[in-house]
Every structure is written in structure tokens, then in C-alpha cells.
Amino acid sequence: MRGCGRRSHSSLPASQPHGSWRGQTLPWAWETVGVLLIMAGVVTAALARRRWRAMDAAIREGEPLPAPGIAVMIAGVIVLCGLITTALLLGTNPGHVP
Q: What is the count of structural domains for the chain?
């Protein structure tokens, strides 16, 4: 694609440092996002049965349902991963997204 204004990694200007993340993919960052999302899924699955039992007991006893405390943490992890992914995509050349 000549003339479209995009540069490949081999034609980066000499002034750009070799270790610069701008325009390059960061495998460790993508892996971090993946691990965070997997951990959020594992925590959700691990705590689901406990929450279900607490909800069931509250319904049987006519008490108010317990607050969804873990939901706030899971939502925070998802939002954080979304922000990291957006930053990674904005800092990556269009042809180099993993």
C-alpha cells in the first residue's frame, strides 16, 4: 500500500527509540488483559454457589437479599480491561493487532 501514509516497523524513523511501545503490539499487555478476564471468570464461578446459597436462605427465611458485593469487583475488572484494550488499540498500527 504505497502512498497511504502508513509505515512498517522497518521504516520507523531513526529518532524513535527501539523500545518504544508506540505503533507496536505489546504481547505481555494483551496477555495481562486475558489473565485478568480469566481470573474474573474463575472468581465469579468460585463464589457463585456461595452467593446462590445465601440468596436461597434469605428467601426461605423471608429476609432481605444480600448485597451483590462481588459484582462491583467484577465490573471494575471488566472496565479496567476495556480501558487497557482501548489504549492498546489506539497505540497500535492497524495492521499489527494480534
A: 1
Say if residue 39's pLDDT is above 60.
Answer: yes
CA distance 48 to 70: 10
> DSSP letters of 45-94?
HHHHHHHHHHHHHHHHHTPPPPP-HHHHHHHHHHHHHHHHHHHHHHTS-G
| pTM listed for this prediction | 0.54
Burial of 24 (0-12, 13-18, 19+ CB in 10 A): middle
Domain limits for position 72: 26-92
Instruction: Identify which of 34, 5, 7, 36 has the alpha carbon closest to the alpha carbon of residue 23.
Output: 7
